[in-house]
């Protein structure tokens, strides 16, 4: 089993839709969780850190479920510009992140 | 301020040749990471530098891979006797410290193609 797993998608949704991605992790000792966004042929950029209480930034909500060992990202009112690959990252040790393979999102007009 | 920079942006080489990839981290960032990303895949950790400490090389896939970080700043990733399976995008990231909560900032990557 991979240390961090994501549904690769693709998720094709219409503008204005709400879409959610899950990411499961295997290391129960993990403490840090992140969502990164990666545009085609570009580097990953941090979208959100995921805090234990869950956090929201505009249309984006991140949640952590320790009992089931997954994190989620919810995007409301999807925009065309949200089309990208979303990578989750979980710390596997004190110093390195383990990344999922990414979930591809396409928002359709 | 300037972000993480990497050079070259693209590198095409023949199987068996050595290549050097360069990373300039954000000024003041003490932690530097190298990752590799194959087509359609996630990021694979390669090596980590923190200040003057011995690097964490646990992710290097073989002894053909090595990396240096001179003066706590610029880093070079060297791949000797390249193989076709080494073709990937090599990403460098830096962060301000060692805390697991520190955000990693990525460079644009070097796209390596081994023919």
- Along the chain, the helix and strand elements of chain B come as EEEEEEEEEE
Oligomer: heterodimer
Rounded to the nearest angstrom, the distance between the terminal CA atoms of chain B is 37 Å
**Relative strand content of chain A:** over 45%
Describe the structure.
The complex is a heterodimer of chains A (109) and B (115). With 109 residues, chain A is mainly β. Chain A has no helices and eleven strands. In chain A, strands 2, 4, 5, 9, 10 and 11 form a six-stranded mixed β-sheet that branches. Chain A has a five-stranded antiparallel β-sheet with strand order 1-3-8-7-6, with no helix packed on it. The radius of gyration of chain A is 13 Å and the shape is globular. The termini of chain A are far apart. With 115 residues, chain B is an all-beta fold. Chain B is built from no helices and ten strands. In chain B, strands 2, 4, 5, 8, 9 and 10 form a six-stranded mixed β-sheet that branches. Chain B has a four-stranded antiparallel β-sheet with strand order 1-3-7-6, with no helix packed on it. In chain B, a hairpin with a 5-residue loop joins strand 4 (31-37) and strand 5 (43-50). Chain B starts with a strand and ends with a strand. The A-B interface holds A 4, 6, 8, 31-32, 34, 42-46, 49, 87, 89, 91, 94-102 and B 31, 33, 35, 40-43, 45, 48, 50, 56, 59, 91, 98, 100-101, 103-109.
